[in-house]
Each structure stands twice: as structure tokens, then as C-alpha cells.
Amino acid sequence: MKEEPHIITFNKIGTPNLGYISVAEVADNIPFDIKRVYWTYFTPNHVERGNHAHVALRQVILSVAGIINFELENVEGEVFKFTLDEPNKGLFVPPGYWRKMRFSHNAVLLCMASLAYDEKDYIRNYDDFKALKK
Ligand code: TYD
Fold it and tell me: Does residue 50 have its Cβ closer than 6 Å to ligand 1?
């Protein structure tokens, strides 16, 4: 079955008085074995990050603080837009999606990834990406 980008809602354990804990756990709410975790921060408002696609990488991406807007496009030209504005909201990004992200300045993006970093897994040229359409 074709994988599509979608929101994963994590449990919020706690109360407004005490605060919350959310948990990401392989085989429970993460649909792959996590091989790598990275985070990005202090991205100015006017900067657009991303502008690449991945060949095989699967990701679940959270905004642990702040707001992150995502635009995802597949080779067929279907566009998916998501706003990560709560720390218990994750975005599953399958392989084959061109992504653009914009951040509130306080945003901290946390990514759980299915593979180690490998520049060969990146498609960084939009025309090369669109040429993958059969
Ligand atoms: P990149 O994935 O292009 O970031 P973004 O899509 O957020 O703009 O990565 C930016 C730089 O960081 C690039 O030079 C590769 C490097 N990098 C690593 O060395 N290891 C990693 O795990 C990641 C995600 C990036």
C-alpha cells in the first residue's frame, strides 16, 4: 500500500497543573526502527528550509516547541500541507516527498529517522525530483 504523509497524535500524559509527557515508541506509534534523531532550532522566520526529497528515508517529525509549517509534494504533484503547533503532534513523512518548512523563531524541530545520514539518499534538485515521475 502506498504510504501517505499523515499526522500521528501522541498521548499526552499529565494534567494542565502538572504538565505533560508524550512518548514515541517503536512498534507502538513509530512505524519504523529509529536509526537517527536530529533537531533543528533558531531558524529565522524568513528562512525556508528543506527543499529536498528522500529516496528511502522515513521520518516522524515533531515541533517540540513553536510552530512549523510543512508543505509536502509527491512526484505526481499532490500537495499536502500540515501545521505542527502542539508538542504531541507528529508528522509521518514517507520517502518521495519534496518538503518545504517554515519555522517560528522559537521552533525546535525533532526528527526521528529510519536511516543513518547519507547524502546519497537526498534529491536536492527539484527538476531531478519531478523527473522521477514515470
Ligand atoms: P538538511 O537535511 O539539508 O537540512 P534542512 O532540510 O533542514 O535544511 O541538512 C543540513 C546540513 O546538515 C547538510 O549539510 C547535511 C547536514 N546533516 C548531517 O550532517 N546529518 C544529519 O543527520 C542531517 C539531518 C543533516
Answer: yes
Q: Are 123 and 129 in contact (CB under 8 A)?
A: yes
Per residue in 46-60, pLDDT tens?
A: 999 999 999 999 999
CATH superfamily of 6-131: Jelly Rolls (2.60.120.10)
Atom of ligand 1 at shortest range from CA of 43: 7
Residue nearest to atom 14 of ligand 1 (CA): 119
User: Is the C-beta atom of 38 inside 6 A of ligand 1?
Assistant: yes
Nearest CA to ligand 1 atom 22: 117
| 31 vs 43: CA distance, rounded Å | 28
| Residues of the chain scoring pLDDT < 50 | none
pLDDT value, residue 77: 96
Phi, psi of 130 (to 5 degrees): -65, -25
Q: What are the residue ranges spanned by the domains of the chain? A: 6-131
pTM of the predicted structure, to 2 decimals: 0.96
Separation CA 92–CA 61 (nearest Å): 7
Cα Rg of the chain (Å, integer): 15
